[in-house]
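Illustration 12: Probable malate:quinone oxidoreductase.
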Amino acid sequence: MNNLHNKTDVVLIGGGIMSATLGMLLKEVQPDWEISVFERLGKCAEESSNAWNNAGTGHSALCELNYTKEQADGSIDITKAIHINEQFQVSKQFWAHLVKTGQLPEPKKFIRSVPHMSFVTGTDNVRFLKARVEALKDNNLFKNMTISDEPDTLKEWIPLMMEGRQNLTTPIAATRDHSGTDVNFGALTGQLLTRIEERGAGVYYEHEVLDLKQNKDKTWTIKIRDIKEDKVFTVVSKFVFIGAGGASLPLLQKTGIPESKHVGGFPVSGLFLVCKNPDVVEKHHAKVYGKAKVGAPPMSVPHLDTRYIDGERTLLFGPFAGFSPKFLKQGSYFDLIKSVKPNNLLTMLAAGAKEIPLTKYLVQQLMLSNDERMDDLREFVPNAKNEDWRVVVAGQRVQVIKDTDKGKGTLQFGTEVIASQDGTLAALLGASPGASTAVPVMLDVLQRTFGHTFSEWEPKIKEMVPSFGTKLSDDAALYETVNQEVVKYLQLNPETK
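Figure caption equivalent — predicted structure in token form:
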């Protein structure tokens, strides 16, 4: 840990993937800047970025059906799928650059090739899946996707899920794309923070940010408590990034900037079923996403995932939604109440009135017994045995509520960057696809807050992310070039059958 100065260029609040990514980008484009990272817990990535607290899917819309909406005329809107995939391509290019330059020496500790699949049952859903593939197949980002409705083929692809499906009377189908990945964002965060600390950044654990106040010269005074020493001190910084997961909203509200008004948050917790039985785990090597049940929110899409956590291969199924008023897994039961302010009260009330179906869904999920969760799992794995699976509580997610052109109190399902008009502060709110978009989102933060110097950084950024400013979906040749680099340096094996 470097010596803490009372004045610095950049303060990053939160020791997760977002702060780590922004810190690494800044060390690349402006290595002389002084950076301080403050994390409330005893080590990095213990909340939203922790491997047990997020899905770990490198979200690229290869399997997530909620990113391709069916329109009234039966056509499939692939706009969001392309956007999500483009974002993840940017993240992979940056990671590959860091591996290439020796700054992430062990890529297998945070990323591995795992096929991404979609699985559906029923005539209408099979028709939808085929229409989805038809809509995506001509885009070079999705050209490797294959589909089958043949039981024998599916037995090869997903043997665990096909056990117990004899004498099928209901149509089934699945898609598969070998370019999918499993990402341990906790491990990645640790590697990034270690590297920026080696490059001169100060990374301070058990340091809680209590308050932020802007000074007349546009700098920020940050009030911090050293939890271990029980001492309070202040640091003055030219720029502040709030990347504290569920704690970002309360901290943003403390800044008092106009952009923090009329913004609220709704916390949603989750549960996963986990299997570590090697006899079961070995029968499944994929991330398989289904369709959300009618009336369920986007974050509830069921999936059966192969995960690599701490070097161990395991299976996760879920998520099952829950509710807690906490904004962090290790937060306070008063977080939600404290976040309601005079300036966002109407926004919050409007959201509550509009989100009655979500409330009903959460109540239903909270009432599920373990046997009922196992019944949901058996829709994916018919022969699943209770003794092979246990419940794990996942992380807290705080969905953003804000006033938009869609009306007052609109619940947002995604990530949201809020930046001050003077460019001295930015905060990240929201959830999925979250960590997968860390690099493009942090590049957006830099562009929005350092507009006066961003153009000077662009040559270096294009060196790190060759596709920056270009859509790979529109440039097949560039995609092939950068993808070869990504596969090589991240040690992926996307052609593995």
